[in-house]
């Protein structure tokens, strides 16, 4: 959404108008801006310290200071000397010397300070003034637009989120990076924690012994994509993993863009009780005494730390805000989005661009909040044109960003859905579902056997549930040799495939 263009609002002018109405100038530190620029021209050693704080000319209040700073950065990036003469020459080359105030102004800057000794402190104050100006600017725009009867309130909040993110990007780029020594110490501390722990989990409980064994639990900051065709059980799978995480004490946020909260709750009851899902969704519940058993299950589930938002077509901005709220109020360890292609937009974007932005945004949420984000993805009908109907990475071709952004890409495949025999080279007798790990940034790929109970819409490690689940499938199996290329084609490898329908909905 281009708010400024749509509503013809100039946020900078609004800021100045509001500031003048209040009898105040916008927050600024002109003297420190001058000190920074003067220091850089007399003592170039300060530039590295400055760039640890900010590297964007927009931080400066005066336009003349912005162009001078840009000239200095350009000289630095091309490894040229930085002094009064070279900065003047660079400004002349860009035809910006007059905007900068001329040579006389540059000379005046160099006479204000003798070294760059305090440049980092000065830079932090200048950055804080910029952040205050941006806060006034965004707030002014929001106030003006909120009074406009034609404005969309949700788009206003999206605009606010975008503008705040721009400021955060500038601030984040200037934050001090962790040194290699610090990183080594953090790694050693983590290894020690794992050594001292009685649990094999290093992340959030997946709800499955086999997946815990392979992944060590869902890891913080990881973006996990689970893809499948309709009917494979995508929502059932994440419902199971949501319950597993919540039972182990990890709070979970669930963005349900497809099902209502009531529908999800009904599925959890079927998962945890002896009732089939159709018994809970049709009239004429069998016996009153059975209802008491249902209530017992509900009471056991009631206290689980699960938080669901079932509003349709949420944008990635709205999902980010909800995730931050869940993290702040409930300290969630995992966020589930069901499913990626249903997230909203302003309707003007190509589906590839839209899905790419959503994928990028979900990975950013995982990193920002230090949580696991699981995004479900609907696969194209191209899957069903293959001999085995088995999904592979190239079936995410509608947006290569999904594959690139994801730390793990997994697929759910049930051959019985297509009337095909279970592949006994991959699955043992008590499993009917292939959980295909097609990409895993931290480990191996392959297939893990699971069992799916259609009546209860529930996945488990195996049909016979006991402590020896390894009798079903010992763990990760290699992808069958009968489909060596099908699982690992890149998007580029398939560029010659012209029979794909770009209008295939949702892909």
From TrEMBL:
Molecular-function annotations in GO: 5'-3' DNA helicase activity; ATP binding; DNA binding; hydrolase activity
One protein family per Pfam: DnaB_C
GO biological process: DNA replication, synthesis of primer
Name of the protein: Replicative DNA helicase
One GO term describing the cellular component: cytosol
Major enzyme class: isomerase
InterPro entries, per the entry: DNA_heli_DnaB-like_N_sf, DNA_helicase_DnaB, DNA_helicase_DnaB-like_C, DNA_helicase_DnaB-like_N, DNA_helicase_N/primase_C, P-loop_NTPase
Function: The main replicative DNA helicase, it participates in initiation and elongation during chromosome replication. Travels ahead of the DNA replisome, separating dsDNA into templates for DNA synthesis. A processive ATP-dependent 5'-3' DNA helicase it has DNA-dependent ATPase activity.
EC number, UniProt record: 5.6.2.3
UniProt KW Phosphoprotein keyword: no
Reaction catalyzed: ATP + H2O = ADP + phosphate + H(+)
